[in-house]
From TrEMBL:
Gene3D superfamilies for the chain: MetI-like
Domain ABC transmembrane type-1 per the UniProt entry, residue ranges: 95-295
Identification of the protein by name: ABC transporter permease
Main location: membrane
Key words of the record: Cell membrane, Membrane, Transmembrane, Transmembrane helix, Transport
Topology class, membrane: Multi-pass membrane protein
Family statement: Belongs to the binding-protein-dependent transport system permease family.
The species this protein was found in: Siccirubricoccus soli
Length: 307
């Protein structure tokens, strides 16, 4: 117990936590992000219905408005969609897919970008020039365009039935591969500064290998900005996944994310069933906005010039 309470006590006494609790916007953003995370992660247990259980769907319940409207039903607090699915449950399950894709894509781009940036900054020379030119070329293209290109190539290369089984992994790869240059360039800049410091020179003198120096000595000292970029990129990754799903090239219809729900609701927006697209859109906005606000706070809190 003491081993757990000691780090917790240091965290509560830290400047980072002091900055956190002194910012009401950050506290509210953290609560909203926590609600989104818990609601999505525990959707199978917290959701009122299973929106993807075909045996429980009833087309007679389709297009029911929210519970507080005249024809609403308390069984469906936010109403139903065109197939009679409970919209609140569909949002909770859809947020699971959006968060899963966003988190995995950011982890993938972080690992790839940090590795490339660390190698480019420490090794320098031809390796640095080649890797950074590749990053510069990729930065000239919008990330969503690269994701669409990767998804299109995979769709053309694989049979339809195979693509449906790996569609989730394809989306994660497509979004992750489009974001690594930001991490790589940031880590490279920090590594260029760190590699000439005395502790790195001392490690070279005692005969430590390059990989050991990069991973054990340099890497821990360049991870600060990476955490901030990863937090900010999580919101971008969620938006990218929603955009791909809205365009019909993201996750399959059997695993609808928030972007898929918004696309479905958009077809009925003009006929008066506004709740089918408004509520998933509001959930997406709340999720991304809370993550971005947390990223902004973290960037300012870790900036020594603002202390």
């Amino acid at each position: 117990m003491a081993a757990i309470l000691a780090p917790l006590g240091r965290l509560l006494d830290s400047d980072l936590f002091y900055s956190f609790r002194r910012s009401p916007v950050t506290v509210v953003s953290a609560l909203v992000a926590l609600v989104c995370l818990v609601g999505a992660g525990l959707a199978p247990w917290l959701a009122p219905h299973d929106p993807f259980d075909l045996a429980s769907l009833n087309l007679i319940d389709a297009f029911k408005p929210p519970a507080w409207m005249a024809e609403g039903d308390a069984t469906y607090p936010l109403g139903t969609d065109d197939q009679g699915r409970d919209l609140l449950s569909a949002i909770m399950y859809g947020a699971r897919i959006s968060l899963l894709v966003g988190i995995c894509a950011v982890l993938f781009s972080t690992l790839l970008g940090v590795g490339i940036g660390l190698a480019a900054g420490y090794l320098g020379g031809t390796v640095d020039g080649l890797l950074m030119r590749i990053a510069d070329i990729q930065l000239t293209f919008p990330s969503i365009l690269i994701a669409l290109l990767v998804d299109g190539v995979v769709r053309a290369a694989l049979p339809q039935e195979v693509h449906e089984h790996i569609a989730l992994f394809v989306v994660i790869f497509a979004i992750g591969i489009s974001a690594w240059p930001q991490f790589a360039r940031t880590v490279r800049s920090s590594t260029l500064v760190e590699r000439n410091k005395e502790y790195v020179l001392a490690a070279r003198v005692i005969g430590l290998s390059r990989p050991h120096i990069m991973l054990t000595h340099v890497l821990p000292n360049v991870l600060g900005p990476v955490l901030v970029i990863a937090t900010l990129n999580l919101g971008n990754a969620i938006i990218s996944e929603a955009t791909l799903s809205f365009l019909g090239v993201g996750v399959p219809p059997t695993q609808p994310s928030l972007g898929t729900l918004i696309r479905i609701g958009n077809d009925f927006l003009g006929s008066g069933e506004w709740w089918i697209t408004i509520f998933p859109g509001a959930a997406l906005v709340a999720m991304v906005l809370s993550v971005n606000l947390l990223g902004d706070w973290l960037r300012d809190a870790l900036n020594p010039k603002l202390r």
